[in-house]
TrEMBL record:
Organism, as annotated: Blautia obeum A2-162
Any one GO molecular-function label of the UniProt entry: DNA binding
GO-annotated biological processes: DNA integration; DNA recombination
Keyword terms: DNA recombination, DNA-binding
Pfam families, sorted: Phage_integrase
The protein's name in its UniProt record: Site-specific recombinase XerD
Family stated for the protein in its record: Belongs to the 'phage' integrase family.
Domain of life: Bacteria
Residue ranges constituting the Tyr recombinase domain according to the UniProt record: 26-234
Amino acid sequence: MALEDDLILRNPFEFQVSVVLVNDSVTREAITVDQMRKFLNFVKEDEHFSRYYEAFYILFHTGMRISEFCGLTVKDLNMKEGKINIDHQLMRWSDMKYGIESPKTNAGTRQIPMTSEVYECFKIILEQRKKYKVEPVIDGYRGFLFLDKNKMPLVALHWEKYFQHAVEKYNSIYKAQLPKITPHVCRHTYCSNQARAGMNPKTLQYLMGHSDIGVTLNTYTHIKYDDAKDEVLKMAGSR
């Protein structure tokens, strides 16, 4: 029975799940759609944190790993075709040295299509990006989207702090408190939202850069008769 269960979990089926409940083991690191919208609206209108709105929005709506986001360069954005090219990630180690690494797995190398909203966010980022006479170069890569006061690329720790401080300010104003939000929470929230919207698991696996379909399928659970009925009728009607 255990072997059969394992085979089922690893079966890369192709049908689309139109109505899902998201596994609690995954959603414990995600926030609700309502919480996400309230947080983003707050950031957008805040005098200080509005400078991070576009980046926050992109992280919530692409599912990128923060190291992948930090590693993005101007050349990685195909604005003509609306595609994000991901084939590396930016790291900064405990000795404060920077480096470029390949994605965690081969599946991490991918292209993410931009929604119109994500496209507009990247357009604003590119328009507001300062022009430097000398760009930092890390392992041959240059043109990073965000630089710190020392003219070095922003890394994961920077964004974690920006999220932390934004949430703290939000919670100091509003009675309904937000949970902890990090770039990793953004990634899980994106995965959860796409699963709830009925995205094909194989498509979601590709967008998330998961090497194992089982990781993605962990988001799709508790499928019931009504869910199956709706899907069967939908497929029959499309023929």
